[in-house]
Design brief:
215 residues, globular, 8-stranded antiparallel β-sheet
Length: 215
């Protein structure tokens, strides 16, 4: 699976226009290999929009970029943001939750938390083991985390995406309060990580695009 991360810094007074343009990406829904698109406004930086698109494989994404992207993209959208950052990730493994696949997670989650982890040289395997055995198990115990993905950056194998979908924002807040402190202590993050950042967002329904077979 290929995951495309798009971050846009939207201009002042252009949020509505950006959102209207983003809603025009519904043409993705019938492209072979397309698994879904989701996005929203960054909770800590409300002028920043986060968008994630999921593809079955590199071939599906390449077909889209070569044959369909320019037909859907409205050039006017580029006037609504001052900067855009795009990064590609490849799936490492699925995070098990209430749902069994990422398509269902994108359909049912109302809130997403994203962590971008810069892992120390030689610590990737330990980082992934900790993600599987500590963080994933802890999130699953909440019974409110629907599922997610662990993926590595195409251009940097020590840079990882942790993408998790939640029933709603309150469910994630309860996880942070009740589960996160003990999980952090168990994980000993400082052993593996150079840096960690990311974003959280409530889903903008108008931006969501799902394949026909799961709508």
């Amino acid at each position: 699976m290929l995951i495309k991360r798009i971050l846009c810094e939207v201009k002042e007074n252009q949020c509505q226009a950006f959102s209207e343009y983003q809603a025009q990406w519904k043409g993705l829904e019938d492209i072979p290999g397309f698994l879904g698109q989701i996005g929203g406004w960054n909770k800590k930086q409300p002028m920043n929009a986060s968008i994630y698109t999921f593809w079955k494989d590199q071939e599906s994404y390449a077909y889209f970029m070569e044959n369909v992207h320019d037909e859907i993209f409205n050039p006017g959208q580029s006037n609504t943001y001052s900067s855009i950052k795009i990064e590609m990730f490849e799936e490492e493994f699925y995070i098990e939750g209430l749902e069994s696949d990422i398509e269902s997670v994108l359909k049912k989650s109302q809130f997403f938390r994203v962590a971008i982890c810069e892992v120390k040289e030689g610590r990737a395997n330990n980082f992934l083991d900790t993600q599987r055995n500590v963080w994933n198990q802890g999130m699953k115990q909440t019974k409110t985390m629907l599922g997610g993905e662990v993926a590595f950056a195409v251009k940097d194998k020590n840079r990882f995406l942790i993408f998790s979908g939640w029933q709603n924002e309150k469910a994630h807040e309860q996880y942070v309060q009740l589960y996160f402190p003990s999980l952090k202590e168990m994980a000993q993050m400082e052993l593996d990580l150079e840096n960690i950042n990311g974003e959280a967002f409530i889903v903008e329904k108008a931006w969501s695009v799902l394949p026909f077979h799961i709508r």
